[in-house]
## 1
Amino acid sequence: MTYSRFALMILTSTVVMFVLMYLNTYAFEHVFFSETRVYMAVLMGATMAIIMLGYMLGMYANKALNIAIFAGAAVVFALSLWLVRSQVTVSGESYMRAMIPHHSIAVMTSERARIRDARVRKLADEIIGAQRREIAEMRYLIGAVASGETTDVVYADPPPEPGTIDDALNNTLISALDPAPLRADEADRLLASGPRCAFNRSPETDPILWVSRGTGEAAMSLNGVLVPLAASDGTVDEITTYAAPGVMMSVRPLGEDADWRQDTELVFSLDQGLRVGYRGFWSCDAT
């Protein structure tokens, strides 16, 4: 076997290992290019080069070249390991592109594991909900950061104060509020029957916004409360707003930026200052 064939074998194996690392993601739309996974694939390729050459030394007679391969592979291994652990080249966008498939793995294992204990099932369902919400939020932030929309300020709750357990139970942390998935039968309690549109953060979950077509009435669930919303008059820059006193949901089609991962952007905001965006999917009943 020639050295060029050995190099091609290691290169092919490295590429294959990079692809294989995505096979345990939950859905195809969760596949994003990840610098960290590239470094891991290169690290594994360097390891494979050392192990395979060690087992096949009898097939390669050039001792100087063998030493060079061992040394080069060790350097590549050390550099790749440093890049993985230091994350020195990973920016905000790269971080989120790496985290989306990572979250997707958590969704896949939490949903499909054979769980019998109700406590573990509850924990797994909470993980699924949190990971899907964060995936939708990261898709939104990737688009926002890529377009140059950055900020140094985010909403923060006031610092904790001494009090009683009743005070704690009656206290709402604004920063932890998030639109919850809303089933169709729950939306029925606020909306008239008829064709509807809805925004989903993930195709596998219930929508977080239901809209009655024609009436402009909408519904959301927040902190265990079903909240009716009303559409504003018309649209501004293709953004349709649904609001109630203190809260607003703004929906914008992505147009040319739409793909299999997302077609619509929703921004949830409260008067207190909280603002969170998601990218997901908009669908409407047939008329």
## 2
Amino acid sequence: SEAEKTFQRFAVLGDSSSSGAEINNKNFSKLCQDCGITDGKTVTSTDVDTVFNKVKAKDAGTITFQRFTEAMKDLSQKRFKEKSPDQGLEDIFKLMEGKNPATTGGFYQAAVASAMDQHTDTRKYTGSHEEPLDYIGKGITGQKETTDNSEYGRSCKGAATYDKKKQKRK
């Protein structure tokens, strides 16, 4: 069936040695997310994890398609409350038809790009960082020396004596 094909595509995701006969919790959650079974309101990621742990064997980390069908029946009761378990399961399988795992690289690249944009987009700068301090003419850095050499030392006691002492040494 179409649901079983979708199950197999998600079961082998990230595991080249997998035959596609069993799916782990991570790929099960991804399947529910990518196929629109989780909606964030009636079916959440917590519900998905709970149902997975309920149908799997105690010592197992994966479930077969048969147990997967049981899990989907449980989730269909949460998602489609007004329908019978069998009708809800059919509706869940319709959501799964023809679905493939979404590429994981796209999310990571988008997240990195977004993080980098925060630092390089000058429209988001505020306050003292609004205009870059550079040699182009914005700000005073690079245009002239800003240190004050008029005093000798830290206090005013030796003010204006630096140049005099320098001349005496010559």
## 3
Amino acid sequence: MLSIRGLCVEVEGKSILRGLDLEIDAGEVHTIMGPNGSGKSTLAHVLVGHPGYDVKGGEVRYRGRDLLALDVEQRAAAGLFLAFQYPVEIPGVSNIQFLKSALNSLRKQRAESELDALEFLDTVKARMQQMQMDEALLYRGVNEGFSGGEKKSNEILQMLVLEPQLAILDETDSGLDIDALKRIAAGINAFRREDRALILVTHYQRLLDHVRPDFVHVLQDGRIGRSGGPELALELEQSGYGRAVPGETGHD
């Protein structure tokens, strides 16, 4: 589904990713870990086409296509999705308006028929029930006045409604209490399917207690410094990055 070869990225002239390689197949969940500043969020934003990141080299192919040649809208239509570490508020645009417009825009680009108001409402309410979210949030501005847990739940709600092929979750677990974490994890597990893939960017083992990844990767000096199974995250939790990944500095 996703093949990254030699990806080099700069931000404001500073080298962040320095020849990163990564392969992801459909049906797999990959966890990206690493200290602050190691490039985890940079990778997530580059994949979805954020303009603030300067790709200096390498290749990214998504389902056989040159991902870097596609603009943001084309990447979304092709099935990419990013849940933000810090979800933004959009005053004046209700959650229900936003979700309906986004879903029907994607369906239109995929040559699928748009959902009418009743069909959409049935779909989104079922997903909200799944996420144990108050339906009143549908009629408020996107993330406006939401608690931290509500904002993160809203990101997972968007993922469940839009049904992307490759979902990238950038520290979706940060700042959550245990109940909110369990709701988020249940939503992620409900999304998992053999024809989809997930990239989980996280600092902590606790999300992985509920969402079992197939692979765990540690970013080191702008590259994947070490890869393994779920047991690698446990090792990192116990020993830290320095011992688990020799040479890790955490300054890139």
## 4
Amino acid sequence: MQKTFEALASTPRRKILAYLSEAELNAGEIAARFDMSKPAVSQHLSILENAGLIASEKRGQFVYYRMIPENLVNTLNSYVQEVCPVSRPLKRESAELSGKSDRQSKGDRPEPPSAAGDAV
């Protein structure tokens, strides 16, 4: 998660993600949209790729980039669940349910849900 937020901390990298949100672009097409050197754009692309936010594919002499929206959504969702006070009890209940399903598979009877757990 840390790599994702470090990658998103940069305005050029957020712009690159916006450009890749609807289309695949090669490195040259991305660089043409910025007033910076191609090596600088390449560094930004590398950071985004290392964070798992974009993927690259070499086709002939060009490298094409595309966004991986699932990774961004999952990272942001995990972050929200960590900091959101509403999500904490739900995550705790989920962990408990996971433990209950382990007991069920061993033949134990599940515990009935508590009244406090029903009032979410």
